[in-house]
Write a structure and sequence with these properties.
The protein has 302 residues and is an all-alpha fold. The chain is 70% helix and 0% strand. The chain starts with a helix and ends in a 5-residue tail after the last helix.
């Protein structure tokens, strides 16, 4: 992934034909490497002294999804490039769906739908997607209280409890506790001691013992309260307002990336995990550099 970032800075940003395919090539190499690790018991990690559990590839699968729109954006609008983009998406999709990361699989699906929807809506998609992100931040704790009742039976029967059911229970129990300190919250990282603090009040206190709610919206509500939620809401509004300056061609891939990031944030990982913020920062920085270079490349009209 660092190689993709490096080549993106050197080649993709300059957007010349000789280097525009490099990010996709490196994405393909990454996907193949993940497939090799999954199929043969992590030979590369083992050689480097790491452990061989398949779940160690989960973060790589998530990163693969998030880098995908950026890598494809570098490609020129030619017939050979379209074929290469289909190959890249296909191989990356195989790697993602053979991994154990359910959040990567979900975000891959959301990314695909979001891209197509943004293509249809054009610039109107910025407002639509912004409203969706804001609404989920504000309403997720309320919805989480009854989430198990909202999950269709066919999903409950075909998806293991460890994948879906336990998350619904976790989000629901944390959401119940928000109302003990709804304005200022319980403090950052207070989720780590939620079981010690409130476990005696809940029948299913075990789900409080995983360090955090595995849901950004629920964790922000629990730890920072209404004040924190309003501050994040303001940041979200400012962010989507800034997207109005995007060139039309960039709107679908950028919104697809944002949708995938938000999806992962709502179903997995802690709100303050350093690796997650670092990954988002790398992707955001690359997008900013690409878009800035494109603006500079536009000839000034006299």
């Amino acid at each position: 992934m660092l190689a993709i970032a490096a080549v993106g800075i050197r080649g993709g940003i300059q957007r010349d034909r000789s280097t525009a395919v490099f990010p996709c090539i490196l994405l393909l190499v990454t996907a193949v490497l993940i497939l090799i690790e999954l199929r043969f018991g992590s030979p590369v990690r083992s050689a480097l002294g790491g452990t061989s559990e398949a779940f160690r590839m989960n973060r790589g699968a998530v990163a693969l999804v998030l880098f995908l729109p950026l890598a494809l954006y570098f490609l020129p609008a030619t017939t050979p490039a379209r074929g290469f983009s289909i190959l890249t998406v296909g191989v990356a999709g195989i790697a993602v769906f053979l991994s154990e990361s359910e959040s990567a699989k979900l975000s891959f699906g959301v990314l695909s739908i979001a891209y197509l929807l943004a293509r249809v809506l054009g610039r109107y998609a910025i407002a639509v997607f912004g409203f969706g992100v804001l609404a989920t931040l504000l309403l997720t704790p309320r919805l989480a209280l009854n989430l198990n009742n909202l999950i269709p039976d066919f999903l409950s029967e075909n998806i293991s409890y460890g994948t879906l059911g336990i998350r619904a229970d976790m989000w629901g129990e944390f959401s119940k506790l928000i109302w003990f300190k709804p304005i200022l919250g319980h403090g950052m990282e207070a989720s780590h001691v939620a079981r010690d603090t409130y476990g005696h009040l809940l029948a299913n206190d075990r789900v409080l013992g995983f360090g955090h709610a595995h849901n950004f919206a629920v964790q922000v509500w629990y730890e920072l309260g209404l004040v924190g939620v309003l501050l994040f809401s303001a940041l979200i509004i400012l962010f989507f307002r800034s997207l109005k300056s995007l060139p039309v061609r960039a709107v679908p891939p950028v919104l697809a990336t944002v949708s995938a990031i938000w999806t992962v944030s709502l179903v997995s990982h802690g709100a303050w995990q350093a690796w997650w913020w670092s990954l988002m920062g790398i992707i955001a920085l690359l997008w900013l550099m690409v878009l800035h270079s494109e603006r500079e490349a536009v000839p000034v009209q006299s």
